[in-house]
Design a protein that fits this description.
The protein has 673 residues and is of the alpha+beta class. It has 26 helices and ten strands. Helix 17 crosses helix 20. The radius of gyration is 25 Å and the shape is globular. The structure holds zinc ion. Zinc ion binds next to helix 20 and helix 22.
Length: 673
């Protein structure tokens, strides 16, 4: 699985582009007007470093949060929106070419007259098919057939690399089927969540009415989803890759489930026959099996209709789109205003034709010089990590040798794929937006099915090149940096090294560290789930991680809600590792030739300002609540100060901080890598 440095939840996007005061030529590495000089860096370094920026950059109405990540994302989008607008006028594009696909997808999405005229016609056949089901057997066929159409349901069966044999693709079964962000939204008593649940019921009823269906099923659907939520493992339980690895003989497992017929479901989804399946959450399927009988067929049908309507809503009439936005974006995330139509269509285009668009992006905006700088940085980071491991005081020689072996085996991808994906099997038509959505879903599904029985393609990219993000893949033992993030404020080939190492360098270190966090450390140098630690070292690592978790557990950014130190464990370990390794790598980069101060700041101070600069942001309370429940990353403020309070060079750079909230005595600082 790919693990990004920042999570995007649901649909994100747009607003106006950040206007930087820029008096120098070229991009500014760090704009000192971001600093709040009234704040004390020993009290709150985040406020000090970017408080000025925060005061001047509230979250736009079209956004739920406004961070360096989505501001850069927005800048990339604006560049691409311009390119797409040009392509959409190209009348000569050849059928099947990138230009034709982009043009027709975009134009079909912009044709609101056709979309409004068609109403909900496009989903009526699926709704009628659901209506026609009269037996549990019919329900099985539906659960099967609806999968490739992108209609959500509880049976999450897919193909991916075998965690214990990273070269082979294998079939997995995972829990699925919830339409609120997390099981806690169904199960928690808190007034905020109770309020969301009653809004959810009203929302379902409205959506059914808009789709010309019986409108009083909201309560029944909530009740069914609550049962699924109750059967679902929590995010914490799901963090243990060994617990999720339950290899079974498919036929025997299917037989042990009395009511559900998985064989029928996977046949209807187009899987070839297979013997082995890895079940993520066996108890979920046992409960689901009970629910197939316990819940009435009528309720199952309502629930499937709900998934069909909700999943189609953003691509149908404006009534449906608006109601969908009011619940999922405004109620759940605090975004009050919808973006203009062209930007909404662009967003979908970006997720659907991501590589054809990425091709256009990198042609204009990514240079080979950037790639060379990055490769050099990555190697400096790797070498710094190898040094750090050699000098660790808590790890045995035996485990150190294996950790070093894993570090040496890491591979990386920078910028964009050497070979672009083949989209020739995707048909994009000029006259139906919804048809294009369905075609794209089937195309993606077929691409997954094609992996069955084949070796893992290690060259595959799990993020589009234009995306502002990065990831570590445990099964590939690799780190990946798309062209989208290799831009200011994270990186520019002409920035001073301190800013680059505090920005993208710490991101590189973060991704390396994921190979050694609470999850990644369980995978070996071949990308296999295979314990290579001595028991003693594992216990010492767990104790350090627990201490770090306890530190983050004390952070409360909204209401009486706290950061969950266990849920965010891997990311916090990676952030602490990230700045530690990048700081050491920066010294390698300087190789004894330390630079002059810039704008009155030493290179050490600029390194930490660079770190704060990439996590700067404002966020709406609704979105913050959502993310505290669902996001395995800590809020930006704690991503900045959480690692720093444990890091000696931070204290040296900003004058020891022997008092103040940032103060942590050397003996209590947590040093993992
Ligand atoms: Zn991460």
């Amino acid at each position: 699985a790919a693990c990004g440095i920042t999570s995007t939840i649901g649909s994100t996007h747009v607003g106006s582009i950040e206007v930087q005061q820029n008096t120098k030529e070229g991009p500014v590495a760090f704009d000192t007007s971001y600093i709040d000089s009234t704040a004390n860096p020993c009290e709150n370094f985040y406020q000090y470093a970017i408080g000025g920026w925060m005061a001047n950059n509230p979250v736009p109405e079209t956004e739920s949060r406004w961070m360096a990540f989505n501001i850069l994302n927005e800048q990339n989008r604006q560049k691409l929106i311009k390119i797409v607008a040009e392509v959409s006028k190209n009348t000569k594009a050849k059928k099947g070419s990138d230009e034709q696909m982009i043009r027709d997808f975009y134009n079909s999405g912009m044709d609101t007259a056709a979309i409004e005229g068609a109403g909900t016609q496009a989903i009526q056949p699926v709704l009628a098919e659901i209506d026609a089901a009269s037996t549990v057997d019919d329900l099985m066929i539906l659960l099967g057939k609806l999968g490739p159409l992108g209609v959500g349901n509880p049976v999450g069966i897919y193909i991916s690399a075998d965690s214990k044999n990273s070269n082979a693709n294998v079939v997995y079964a995972s829990q699925s089927g919830l339409n609120l962000p997390d099981r806690d939204y169904y199960l928690q008593d808190d007034a905020k969540f109770a309020d969301i649940r009653s809004a959810y019921v009203k929302h379902i009823n409205k959506m059914f009415a808009l789709a010309d269906q019986d409108a009083n099923v909201g309560e029944r659907i909530l009740a069914l989803e609550t049962k699924l939520a109750d059967a679902s493992w929590s995010r914490l339980e799901n963090r243990d890759p060994n617990k999720r690895y339950n290899k079974k003989n498919f036929t025997e497992w299917d037989k042990s489930l009395k009511n559900i017929d998985l064989k029928k479901i996977v046949n209807a989804r187009g899987f070839a026959a297979f013997d082995t399946i890895i079940v993520g959450q066996p108890s979920f399927y046992t409960s689901l099996d009970g629910l197939i009988n316990e819940v009435s067929l009528a309720d199952w049908k309502s629930y499937l209709k709900w998934n069909a309507i909700s999943g189609a809503a953003p691509y149908l009439t404006s009534d449906l789109e608006k109601e969908n936005f009011a619940f999922y974006s405004t109620k759940l995330r605090g975004t009050t205003t919808m973006k203009p139509r062209n930007e909404r269509v662009y967003s979908k285009l970006d997720r659907t034709l991501s590589q054809p668009l990425g091709k256009l992006f990198v042609k204009e905006y990514f240079s080979e010089e950037s790639k060379e700088y990055m490769v050099n940085m990555i190697e400096n980071l790797r070498s710094a990590y190898i040094d750090r491991v050699a000098n660790l005081t808590w790890m045995s020689q035996e485990t150190k040798e294996k950790a070093t072996q894993k570090l040496k085996a890491f591979t990386y991808k920078v910028g964009y794929p050497d070979e672009w994906e083949d989209y020739s099997k995707l048909e994009v038509v000029g006259d139906s937006y919804f048809q294009n959505i369905v075609n794209a879903r089937k195309f993606g599904y077929d691409k997954m099915l094609e992996k069955q029985g084949k070796p893992v393609d290690k060259t595959e990219w799990h993020m589009p090149p234009q995306m502002v993000n990065a990831y570590y893949s445990a099964s590939n033992n690799e780190i990946v940096f798309p062209a989208g993030i290799l831009q200011p404020p994270f990186f520019h080939k002409d920035f001073d090294h301190a800013i680059n190492y505090g920005g993208i360098g710490a991101v590189i270190g973060h991704e390396f560290s994921h190979g050694f966090d609470d999850q990644g450390s369980k995978y070996d140098w071949n990308g296999n789930l295979n314990s290579w630690w001595t028991e003693g070292d594992r216990a010492k690592f767990d104790a350090l991680a627990q201490k770090l978790g306890e530190q983050y557990d004390t952070y409360s950014p909204v209401d009486s809600m706290y950061v969950n130190g266990k849920l965010t464990m891997g990311e916090n370990i990676a952030d602490l590792g990230g700045i530690t390794l990048s700081y050491e790598a920066l010294k390698k980069q300087y190789n004894g030739n330390m630079p002059e101060d810039i704008d009155g700041f030493t290179w050490q101070q600029r390194f930490f300002l660079g770190w704060a600069n990439v996590w700067k942001g404002n966020i709406k309370d609704e979105e913050l609540r959502n993310r505290l429940k669902t996001d395995n990353h800590s809020p930006g403020e704690y991503r900045v100060i959480g690692p720093l309070v444990n890091f000696g060079p931070y204290y040296e750079a900003f004058g020891t901080c022997e008092t103040g909230a940032m103060h942590k005595h050397d003996s209590t600082r947590i040093k993992i890598w």
